[in-house]
Amino acid sequence: MRKIVLIVFTLISLHLSAQQKDTTKTFNLPQGDYDRLFTSVQIESTFVGDWSKFLQTNLNADYVRDRIPKKAVPKNGLKITTEVHFTVCTDGSLCDFQIANDVPPAAAEEVLRVMKLSPKWKPGNQNGIDVKSRKLQKITFFITRD
Fold first, then answer.
1. Which segments within 1-146 are labelled E, that is strand?
2. Could you read off the pLDDT of 44-77 as tens digits, one per residue?
3. 15 in a structural domain
4. What is the helix (H) or strand (E) element at residue 26, kind and residue range?
5. Which of 35, 43, 112, 120 could form a cystine bridge with 125, CB 3.0-4.6 A?
């Protein structure tokens, strides 16, 4: 009986693994379809250089801190994480910025200002063709009392 159960289990396992999709295959799209906006690509778009250094150099946390009432900042500080959606175009430029969460206006303004300063990125790639792709970036400010 144990042999039958083991054989049945092995056959089911082999059948299920044979049915799994091969996610490494490439799918050829008609040429015009590469002009659309991709939310998932084979090769993700990436910042060229050091993203953390770019943010540290360009973000002005004082701008955000100065616009938040001191009484709104707890003794241990206030953490504000801004989520921004944006598009990396085929030429690497960024566009279509949208703040995705509820944050103080100053945080949203500062994040949008810095995102618009960004140099070009390496665009996403689908089947060897550079494509427009959508990204999400989280940028966190930590505001302390003075």
1. 37-38, 46-47, 78-88, 94-99, 121-122, 124-126, 129-143
2. 999 999 999 999 999 999 999 999 999 989 999 9
3. no
4. none
5. 43
CATH code of the domain containing 84:
3.30.1150
CA–CA dist 88, 81 (Å, integer): 21
- CA distance between the termini of the chain: 75
Backbone angles phi, psi at 86, to 5 degrees: -155, 165
Instruction: Show the tokens assigned to 88.
Output: 């990396």
Number of domains observed in the structure of the chain? 1
Residue type, 21: K
CA–CA distance, 99 with 67 (Å, rounded to integer): 18
- What is the rounded distance in angstroms from the CA atom of residue 29 to the CA atom of residue 35? 11
